[in-house]
Amino acid sequence: MNNYKNHRTNYFFPSAARILGFVMIIIGLIGIFSRGIETILISFIGFGICFTRYGVLIDTTNHKLKDYNQVFGIKFGKWELFKNYPYITVLTITEKSTTYSQSNLENSTRRTVYRITLLNENHYKKLLLKKLKNEKEANKLAEDYAKLYKLEKVVYSPG
């Protein structure tokens, strides 16, 4: 029996697109009652936008991992050997989000996030396992993952 650990990292589409997806679901469902069954296509597109995710699936029994995109519950991706990623680290990233109003006024927000990431031998390939807002919590969880998956926790240093 396979023992899978699923690390869903994020939604594929940004929050503004996902809000539009929810609106499409509602429009499609209302359209079924007023226009007919053919408007269900709008709801399916909305479901695809709202619930498409990506992540990493780790098979601890066979020592493999899959970097996947999940659409309608189906995970698309290629299995790789887990030994290709012997290191784990916490990366500090500043994310910036910008929106513009109709009068072309810019509203920007910045936030620091901590990404628990698997690294290959030379640190050029990275796989995101989890994104957290708290640095202490991220370091603690990275140490737990290092023990669980028998990885070495390192400082990111490509080359």
Number of distinct helices: 3
What is the average of the pLDDT values? 89
Q: Indicate the proportion of strand residues.
A: 35-45%
Largest sheet: 4 strands, antiparallel
Write the element-wise H/E pattern from the N-terminal end onward: EHHEEEEEEHE
Instruction: Outline the low-pLDDT stretches.
Output: none
Structural class of the helices, strands and pairings? alpha+beta
Oligomer: single chain
Helix coverage percent: 25-40%
**Spatial separation of the terminal alpha carbons:** 38 Å
**Domain module count:** 2
Provide the gyration radius in Å: 20 Å
Total E-strand runs: 8
Main sheet strand line-up:
1-2-3-4
Shape: flat
